[in-house]
Backbone:
């Protein structure tokens, strides 16, 4: 892919028109990164570069891999705008209206496929997981390492059942508590990035689900009270709250319909 993007004069000219010499420099840097590092290393590099960039711009920047304990009942909406590229690390701070793009977590096809299987007892073939897999396989050639619906039903769905049973028997575990890569058809030691469910935090502190659909859906279906999450991105206005709040326990202004400053999961490191 890097050769296709940066390997001909036409693409270089497009970069020049977009941002001049500096944009070409960034293109060459990206090319070098993709050539020299694997997916896991690239994710780590982007995350840390972004962290130090944010440190230069803001006060009270949270470490990117900080884990928050969040009540699953308070994760009601998914951020649908896809404002952040998860392949380029986590820990974004960005303004704009991206936090306005929301839909109920339980409206997703994947959640409803799991609901139909685990709650209603339907065979996987009778759920919308078939449509989901078909669409992704048609567009990308595979879904979770599976290239056919038969593989999805015989492999991926079995993994979901195992995850469901593990949480029933052992409780919901963080990535640090899990000893093995859960699905080695999808991941290996060079590609697997041990992240928790990823959320975004909007301007008023609302916690919005972003990705980690399988674990999030099963946690909700099993009424898991609380799960560990990591923050993919924070709204710039929310970061301003973090900057102002340090040590000010007396502040009790409402942030969302669920949280006050004193009990917001993303502020406990500052209070």
Residues:
């Amino acid at each position: 892919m890097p050769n296709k993007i940066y390997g001909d004069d036409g693409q270089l000219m497009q970069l020049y028109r977009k941002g001049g010499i500096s944009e070409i420099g960034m293109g060459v840097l990206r090319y070098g990164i993709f050539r020299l590092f694997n997916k896991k290393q690239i994710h780590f590099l982007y995350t840390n570069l972004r962290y130090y960039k944010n440190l230069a711009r803001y006060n009270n920047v949270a470490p990117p891999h900080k884990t928050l304990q969040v009540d699953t009942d308070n994760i009601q909406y998914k951020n649908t705008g896809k404002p952040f590229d998860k392949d380029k690390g986590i820990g974004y701070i960005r303004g704009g209206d991206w936090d306005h793009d929301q839909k109920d977590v339980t409206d997703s096809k994947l959640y409803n496929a799991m609901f139909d299987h685990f709650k209603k007892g339907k065979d996987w073939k009778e759920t919308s997981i078939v449509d989901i897999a078909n669409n992704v396989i048609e567009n990308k050639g595979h879904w979770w390492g599976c290239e056919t619906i038969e593989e999805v039903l015989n492999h991926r769905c079995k993994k979901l059942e195992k995850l469901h049973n593990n949480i029933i028997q052992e409780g919901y575990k963080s990535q640090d508590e899990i000893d093995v890569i859960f699905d080695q058809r999808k991941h290996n030691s060079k590609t697997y990035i041990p992240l928790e469910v990823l959320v975004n935090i909007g301007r008023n502190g609302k916690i919005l689900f972003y990705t980690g659909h399988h674990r999030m859906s099963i946690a909700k279906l099993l009424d898991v009270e609380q799960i560990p999450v990591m923050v993919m991105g924070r709204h710039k206005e929310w970061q301003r709250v973090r900057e102002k709040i340090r040590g000010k326990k007396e502040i009790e202004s409402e942030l969302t319909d669920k949280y006050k400053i004193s009990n917001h999961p993303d502020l406990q490191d500052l209070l």
Remarks:
- Residues 1-8 have pLDDT under 50 and may be disordered.
- The two ends are 45 Å apart (CA to CA).
- Helices lie at 2-6, 9-36, 39-57, 109-119, 129-140, 149-170, 213-221, 236-245.
- DSSP finds eight helices and seven strands in the chain.
